[in-house]
Structures are given as C-alpha cells and as structure tokens.
Fold these 2 entries.
Entry 1:
Amino acid sequence: MPLIVSITGSPTANSRTLALAAQIGRELRQRDFEVQSINVRDLPGDDLLHANVESAPLREAFSLVERADAVVLSTPLYKASYTGVLKSFLDLLPQFGLAGKVVLPLATGGTLSHVLALDYGFRPVLQSLGAQHVVGGLFVLDKLIERQTDGSIVLEAEIQKRLDLVIEDFVQSVRRRLVALPS
Amino acid sequence: MPLIVSITGSPTANSRTLALAAQIGRELRQRDFEVQSINVRDLPGDDLLHANVESAPLREAFSLVERADAVVLSTPLYKASYTGVLKSFLDLLPQFGLAGKVVLPLATGGTLSHVLALDYGFRPVLQSLGAQHVVGGLFVLDKLIERQTDGSIVLEAEIQKRLDLVIEDFVQSVRRRLVALPS
Amino acid sequence: MPLIVSITGSPTANSRTLALAAQIGRELRQRDFEVQSINVRDLPGDDLLHANVESAPLREAFSLVERADAVVLSTPLYKASYTGVLKSFLDLLPQFGLAGKVVLPLATGGTLSHVLALDYGFRPVLQSLGAQHVVGGLFVLDKLIERQTDGSIVLEAEIQKRLDLVIEDFVQSVRRRLVALPS
Amino acid sequence: MPLIVSITGSPTANSRTLALAAQIGRELRQRDFEVQSINVRDLPGDDLLHANVESAPLREAFSLVERADAVVLSTPLYKASYTGVLKSFLDLLPQFGLAGKVVLPLATGGTLSHVLALDYGFRPVLQSLGAQHVVGGLFVLDKLIERQTDGSIVLEAEIQKRLDLVIEDFVQSVRRRLVALPS
C-alpha cells in the first residue's frame, strides 16, 4: 500500500490546521493509502532549533518522509508565509528530500489576501527539495472550518467541494507515479 | 543613542552567519548606535515551537525589537529560503512588529544560485511585518568568509566593499528616519 | 521642483488603473511635485517587443525616468502578477535604472486573493532595478473605484484613507531623500 | 500524436533562448510529439499591448495553446524575472488557459544569481493559469550555449546532461497524463 506522510506545522495545539490535516488523512486512508502523521510541534524544540539531526525522534520522522510516496504539507499562514515551525523541519531534510515524491501543499489563514503565499512563498521551497510534482494546493479560510465536538471538522460546502477536487487530483497524481510506463 | 537590534537565525552554534552579524554589530557601534543581539537558537526551543509568547526570554526579546529603531536580520539560506529558526521568531512578533523600523536583511549561503531568496522570499515577510524601509540587503557566499582565531572574520575584499556600501546606506536610512522633516 | 514620473501598465484604454494613477498624479502636483506620465500602451508596441531602444518615443520615456527623483508604478494584476505591458517597458531600462529613486508600487485587481503579487512578484523586480526605497504600496479592488462622468474617480472611503496614508509616506520618503544629512 | 506548443519570449531576433527552444523542439519531435512554435515577438506588438484578442494572429496562437497537451515556455531573465514580452502573451490567455496541461519552464540568463526567478517568479504565474503539472525547469547560462554556423547550438556537456534529464522527466509526465488510469 502506498505511503503518504502528512506533516503539519502549526505551533498551536489542537489547531484548525491539524484538524484539517487529520480529516484529509482519513479520506486518504479510505482510498487505500497508508497515512502516517508528523506534527512538528510534537518534536523536541531544541533538537529542531539546533539542527540536532541525530536526535531519535527526528531520525524517525526523517525516515518516514524518506519512505513516503507522497507528502501532504499543512501550515497556517503567518506573516504572509508558511510557519517557521514547518520550515525548521524541512530545513533538516536532505537537500533533495522530496525527490520523486508527489506533494500536496495546504494552508489555513484568516485573510484571503494571503492566498498567494502558497504559490509564491511555499512552492519554491518544495521545488528546492526536489519534489517530483507539487500538485495544485488549497487555501482554507479559518472561518470556513467548523469544529465538531468529536474533534472532527465540517467545512463550508463550497470549500469542501474544492478540497474534494484537490484530493482527487492528488490521488490521481500519486497513482500515475506508481504506474509503470510502457518503455 | 538609536537602538539597532541584530537578530540571527542560524541553527548551528558559532555559525558564519553569527560571526558576520557580530562583525556588523561592531561596525554599527563604532558609528554611535547601541546594538543588542538576539540569537534565536539561544531562545527556548519549545517556547518558540509552541508559540509560548509569555515565556520570559521571549518577552525580553520581543521588548528589544519593539524598542529598536532599526533591525538587522541575518540568516543562512536553507532550501532556497530563510531558516525556519528565524521565521519561528518572526512568527511570534505582533502583526506589524517592524512598523516604523528600518530593516537590513543579510544572508549567507553556499551557492550564488540562491541569491534571489532574499528579495523573493524574505522581503515579502518583512513587508508583511510593516517594516518602514527594507534597505538593499546582501548575500555573502560562505567561502568568502574567513574565520580568524580570535572569532572575528575577514571577508574577501570585493564583498567587504559591497558590505561597506550596504551598511552606509542602512546607516543613512536610519538617520534619515530620525531627522525631523520641516512641516 | 522634484520630478515624479508615473508609469502605468494597463493594456486597456481608459482603464481604472490609469484613472487611479491620474488621480494620484493630481494629488502629488498639489504637494509641489512636478509629475510626468508614461502610459506604456501609448508607446510603439513593436519597439517594445523588439527591444528597439533607439526608438524616439522610448528614448524620451527612458530620459524621463532617468531624471525622476521618484517613480509611481501602476499595474492591474493579471495571472497573479504585474502586466507584461509594464514589464516590457521596465525590461528596457538600464540595469540599475531605478537607482537612487523612491518607488511607489500600486496595483488594481478583481480579487483580494492576488494582493501578495505586489510584494512577492513585483517588489523583487524593483529591487533588481536598484530602487533606493520601495515604499509600502497599495492594492485597490476594482469595485472600490467608481468612475465619475468627468473621468475622475471616487474611491470607497476606507481605501481612500489607506491611499492617503500611502501617499503621505511616499511624499515623506521622497523629501527625506532630498534632505542633506549632517556629515 | 500529442501536441506540444513551444512559446518563446525573447525580444531579440535570433536569440539564444529561441535557439535553445528550437533544439528542444527537435528533440521532442524525435520522440513522437507534434511540436508547434510561437515566438511572441513575431506577433503584432500593438495587438499584444492593447489586448486586442480578436486579432487573427493572436487568435491563431491562442488556438494552438488551447489544443496543446503540453507547453514549453522559454524566456531570458531580465530584471530578475521573465520578460514582459512573454508575459504580455500569457496575460491574454483565458484565466485557466493552461488547465490540464503539462508545462516545462526554461530560462536563459547571464548570471547564476537569477536562477530562482524561475521558481519564485515564473512558477506562480503558471499555477495561476491552472497548469496541471509544472515539471522541474532549467536555467541555462548564456555562456554555456554555443551557436553553430547552421543556426543550431551546442551546450556545454554538463548542462546538456541536465537538459536531457529535464526533457526525459517532461516527456514522461506528458505520457503519464495521456495514460488512462484504471478506475
């Protein structure tokens, strides 16, 4: 079963970003992918800040990424860009740590005016990491994410439709990667 | 005496980036500025990663930035962008935490091909923080920075000249900020 | 009297962008600046597309920019960026054609989600041209620009206030440039 | 036979960029693609600058792009970004004029320090146009392109190897697009 690793970079516990990533993880599992999650704030802070790449929790996380066929990256937008929390993890990956992988970038934020941070700010970092295919991502306004008492979320209908399309395109791109082309 | 705060975002101890920032700090002191330094990796990692903005060391750092007339921001370039370490600190500043301030962005890196990360990647974050004037920055190739036994550095002659011009322009921009205009 | 050159890059005649630039020009004249305008679409298209820099109309336009103390650059946002029309003119300026100048970037557009194109897309080009100070710019939603029968425009009240602040900051930055610093 | 359209945006006649695009076109034809070319500077300048989308030569060019399975976009880098010539054409495409298409971005330039203009500056425009997959592009230093008397070019060996890899990845991505996935 192909492995998808979902990496979340919000500094707040129980963030909307994490809930969104979890929901997408559930949908991907239903479509016959193995999904493993890394919440960067759960890794040891000083190891990340000091680039202590031999730290056991970091090594385990790096190993997950290395084995992944595809990666979902979820971040809130702060100061018109991805979070330092997420980037502090990506910084420690090997130079081409996303080589051969399909990547889905997702962002949450409080204002529509930061949408382009995904394509202008984040995508170049993912290209630098050698991602094989960064599919079209999605920005979700915080207020369109409604939390349920069981921890799950409900998205406003229109954005849920767009998310479905984004996931469909991502899944197809991952599957195409795994198909052998006639030589 | 006007206050300049120098913030460095390298995850490695005794980095070239830190040595470069220290040298610039010395030059600014000689030009009658008070210079205070923040090395983000010396702040508590978990406080940064968990957005624990009430942490005493973070509050002290934020207070320095708030009081600054100008800020020097120094970062190595990782994955074609500023470090997560530096961004994790900037993320916790108030929304317009650089309002009214003159800002000098500096980067070090191993390849000339990442130069534009300063203008394309970093500058938009500084604008988002409301910086009054982000002056022309400088990218310094690692190999042009030669460490001395006393911890200081010597820059290759041509890049030292360019740094002198950048500092001169920065100093003039800070001074212009402090001059009262005839109304 | 200091000279400000206002360059507009909309491909459509009588565009909102042009009307906005004209209004700002009037306000700057009232504040004792000479204002000259370049509407790129009025220049000979083939000269621009063929980099015919000896063309008389282009040389006249380049000369205006060279003499300018400050430049206002206005563009609609197309495909999440400044227009090709505007860039085709900037491409033919000397390598550091904005050196020593204060620059005000303005954009109009149909969706708030393109705001960051100014800071992420346009500002790096202006830095590359050596601009001394690119002040904080402004994005104006098309629908907040109401045309009057006399060709002038009325802006929605809130955006007019923000424009006033942007112009005030620009004017002060230009004036600071022209003040001799005590040596 | 799948159709690839090659669009070149250099303002100079017989540019290295055009010669590079032509060479890639020949290689793609040998791999069983139909290749059609658009050299934007050959289109009527005033039609581009005035957004005269009903112009016959423009309509013909738009129609080619619409029919294309994949697009190669080649530009010299001016002022740290793609040319205005190229953008003035892209500006007139429909909002999602690259939807469903695989896109290969290529740039030429005089300095390695502008490499990131591809990922930071150009790629966001291509995403905005709805490109299905923007594959990894290539920047080629002018001096690594040697013209032959017959108009063809010879690339320095190392960059030719990298170009071969880029073309191979592009070709595979186009072919994957055309394979029917098992539903």
Entry 2:
Amino acid sequence: MTEPRWPVIEVFGPTVQGEGAEAGLPCYFIRFGGCDYRCKWCDSMYAVEPAEVRANAQSLGVADLISLLTGLEGNPEWIVLSGGNPALLELGTLVHNLQVAEFKVAVETQGSRWRPWLAGVDRLTVSPKPPSSGMATAGHALALSRFLTAANDAGVEPALKIVVADAEDLEWAKGILTTYRAAEKHLSVCTPQPGEGHWESTAALEHQPPESILRLEVADRYRWLCEQVAADPDLAGVRVLPQLHVIAWGSARGV
Amino acid sequence: MTEPRWPVIEVFGPTVQGEGAEAGLPCYFIRFGGCDYRCKWCDSMYAVEPAEVRANAQSLGVADLISLLTGLEGNPEWIVLSGGNPALLELGTLVHNLQVAEFKVAVETQGSRWRPWLAGVDRLTVSPKPPSSGMATAGHALALSRFLTAANDAGVEPALKIVVADAEDLEWAKGILTTYRAAEKHLSVCTPQPGEGHWESTAALEHQPPESILRLEVADRYRWLCEQVAADPDLAGVRVLPQLHVIAWGSARGV
C-alpha cells in the first residue's frame, strides 16, 4: 500500500492562531488545497480555485510534512490543519502521526462533509457560512445538520464559529447558535477587503497604508459586533473576536 | 448584623470582556474602589487613588447592586468583579448572591492578598505586575508565591495573566509562567497612552483621531508580542491577546 499524499499549499509558523477556540495560541499551520465552497470573501482563494491549487500545491506525505515542521522555529503545542476544506481529504494517518509527535491537532471545516477521522482531533471547529458568503443554501443547511449529527454519534461536540459581515449574517448566526449544542460558540468579524468598508475610523485615511486602514476597519466592525452581541439575551455565552492575525499583521500571508 | 457595603466606582454593561480567559464574552462589570498597587500604566486610576475613590465611590450593598444590574440591558452569563483590587474587600456574600442569580463570577487580582472567598468564584485570574508597572518588587514576588500557595491549598488553580509592555516585561513574565502551574496562561499587550509609542503604523498619523492612533499602536505592539511568543519554545501554550475592548472602543470608559 502506498503512503498517502495530500495537496499541500503551505506549511508555516510559528504564528499565533487568529480565530476560534485556540485564538491567541502559538501554532503551526498546514494548509491543504481544495474546497467545495466558494465564499465571496474567502481570504485563501489560492487554496480553493482548482487552477490555483494545481499550480501551487505540492503532493506531500507524512514524512515530508514532519520534515518541514522540524525545520520551523518554535515549539507550539498546537498545529492547525486548514484549507480549503481539509475534510475533503482523508487525514487520519497524518493526525495520528502529529499526535504521536505530541502536537495537539485543531481542524476547522464548514461542516459540509463528515469524515470519521475528524473524531480523533483535539479540537474540531465547525464554521457554517452565513448569507454574505453566498453559501447559505438550504442544501448546505441540511449538510450541516447531518454533519453535526454524525459528529455527535461519534461522541464529538465541535465548537461552532460563524463569520459575521452584517446584520443579516448575525440574524442567521443566531439561528444556528440557538439551534445546535456546541462545545464553544464563537462569532468572528468578517475581515473586509482593504478599502471596502466606509467605516467611521477610516473616513479620513485615504493616504494611509492599506494595512492600517484594514486594521481600523476590522476594529470598527468588531465594535459593532460586540455591541450587538452584548445587548442580545440570546447570545449570552457567545464569544466575539476579531481575526487576531489581521489585527497583528493586516492581510499578510504566511503568518 | 448590618448588611455589608462596598465602595463601588461603576456598574456597567453589557459589554464584552477585553482580557483573559473570558476575552470576547459578553459580561457586566462591577468596579470596586481601592488598590494596594500604583501601576504606572494603570487604566483605571479613578478606582485607585484614595482621593478619587472617596469622590467617586458609592457605598452599595448586595440589594443595591442587584437592583442596578437588573436595570441593565442584555443577559450575559458572566459578571466581572474588577477594581482597583477587589481582593482587598470581603465579597463572599456578593459572589454567593450573584451565583444564586445564575451569573458566573470572574475576578481578577494582582495576587497580593489571598482571601478565602476567592476560592468560590467561577474563574480567578491572577495578574502579577511586571517591571514596567513599577510594582515588580521582591516583596510583591513573595506575596504572589504565598497567594498561589494559598489558592492551591484551597483547591483552586487560577489563570495567570501578565501585561507586557516591553522585552524586559516579557522576560520577567516568562520567569513567572515557567515557575507556576496555572489553569490558563495569558500574555496581554500593555495598552500605551495615546501617542506614547512611535510605532510603525502610526508614524504618519499625527492628524488622525487619537482613538485610531491608539488602536493601531496596540495592533503594532500585539504583532511584536505575537512574534516573540510564537518563536519561543518556553511559551508554547501561552495565549497572547490585545486588550479587545481597546480594539473595539479605544480608551472609552464604561464599555
């Protein structure tokens, strides 16, 4: 039997996880290519579009990946398997080897396709995509329900994390968060394209570096989302975060 | 026996906790007056300086506080008892009543004085003060050690959270975080006074609103701290966060 290999877009770190349950914790990232969604605001389309995946991905196995990780600085507890949608792949062997090497393994997926290997990771985060993504279809809603049932049948209670760009997204997210049980519930501010918003703090910033404008737009959106969530009795136990890597590094890739 | 009353500076919320283990979660705050420390960068000196505490504090009991909380919007799970140093007071009765009302109670203290009632809260965070505070004396180090021993004897493993303003603080924090066990370990970027730093993103921002400058200064400092922590094998499991309320609201008070 040949050793499995997967399409890997990038291996990087040490950095700090910017989102979800491990937000703020040092980690390495492995980003896999391929996705069944096309979210309008996707920040890693280079790991999604088939032409880009074909152009950018290397086909790597466990030994290749361990060797790449060994060459990185630092010694984080966590390793994040990201995408694209890593749940399109069969990563059980990799997860096992990373855990043998004493990593804690975190996976984030939109919850479109259940895989038994997901039950073996140290933290599973499901991030259903709201209306602003263009992916909030009835079919995807059914797939999410089936995914969460399968997870529960496998003894796993995932964390839920939903990106929110606007009031419609928030209302939608509230429906999800009040319908499903979850180990943790997170709302994450959608990071705009630089210059996309016309938010209070950035009105006079046309001549500033785009990274400064982006960080302030995220900060303004974060304030808005905090105010909405804090005042809403139905969202009492929901954690609200900005994308911390955007606060730190703007839209730079590979950090 | 008369009902106990305490010096209360402000009761506010709903807002989102900006720091520590509850970062990003909706909460109410009760801020008590009085502190045994005088940190150089204290952001709530109005709850510290005796003259200001005398001028600003109301003497309130359990019924007063419950009544004020009932008048607030929202329905957060968490209530944060803050200061000043709330561990200077005897708050056991209040904690009990808040828990009966189904709040989870979080307390943050610098770890200078143990109180048995601290064993009864839902999350205790100890925030030892680093050299930049002017409070990192040998006496305070001994007090911290005694505090943590008393906590452990009471069956409590607090979270540790240390504010970091510079490289010296980080080295000091590393000593604390590698010496003591803790339920969670956090590093939090010290928020500068607006205009205090001369950080990359703010060099050209003299004519921008001070809140924008402050948020970008915090973002630059956060990047620096993330880079330091991610690359340091001794800080593998330490969570790094900016003060999220500063990202959201700048230095506004009462949010």
